[in-house]
Amino acid sequence: MNLVYIMRHGESVVNIERRLTCRQPEGDLSPVGREQAAQAAVWLADKNIRRIVHSPFHRAQETAHIIGVRLKLVPSADDDLREMDCGDLEGRTDPAGWDIWTQVYRRWEAAEWEAAFPGGETFLQAYERLSRVLAAVKPDETVLLVSHGGITRVVIPLLCVNAAALQRREYLANTGMIVLEPYGDGRFICRAWNLAEHLV
């Protein structure tokens, strides 16, 4: 069976700082994040992964490369896998900034297509670019996409035929994975959500 594994990057310094980093690529993995990526690599070693594609952000790139070494694959970057563009909120760590982010994000969860972060992208723009990545996956290959929790969590359920089972849209752990099986016409069956048994 050909599957698509979509993974959130490992824990990064911006996660620890609770810093909104949605435009600038900076933000390396923490020591914990590097260990999470190494554990994920071991778990993925027998999953027949043929290609690894990652967000251009450092935390996703580093995660992908740690896994690539183990799987003997050279990852490639795709700008469409980057985190949602939070615009003017970039770099903020204060409660007021997070409140604005949360208000917009809740509208994204409700699939309000024109909802946008101040100076940032709309939900429709984020949906379209992540959809492009998945549309480019060949039907005969199993791939790993390393992206971000925010955009993945709101877009993927809308591409799944079993979306009703995903209504809770649980938080994605660092290196937590969503496993998709191609269904046809750009849709998928979600086989696992926030799979993180490699971290146990």
What spatial order of strands do you see in the largest sheet?
3-2-4-1-5-6
Give the helix level as a range of percent: 25-40%
Assigned CATH architecture: 3-Layer(aba) Sandwich
Q: Helix/strand/pairing class, anyone?
A: alpha/beta
How is the CATH topology named? Rossmann fold
Unreliable spans are none
Please give the domain count. 1
Let me know the CATH homologous superfamily.
Phosphoglycerate mutase-like
Mind telling me the CATH class?
Answer: Alpha Beta
Number of helices: 6
SSE series: EHHEHEHHEHEE
Biggest sheet record: 6 strands, mixed
**Any idea what the radius of gyration is?**
16 Å
Q: How would the global form be characterised? A: globular
**Number of E-state strands:** 6
Arithmetic mean pLDDT? 93
The termini sit apart by 25 Å
Describe the fold and architecture.
This protein has one domain (4-199): Phosphoglycerate mutase-like (Rossmann fold). 34% of the residues lie in helices and 16% in strands. The chain has helices spanning 13-17, 31-44, 58-71, 95-109, 123-135, 149-155, and strands at residues 4-8, 51-54, 76-77, 143-147, 177-184, 187-195. It has a six-stranded mixed β-sheet with strand order 3-2-4-1-5-6. Helix 2 runs parallel beside helix 3 and helix 5 (123-135) packs across helix 6. It starts with a strand and ends in a 5-residue tail after the last strand. The mean pLDDT is 93.
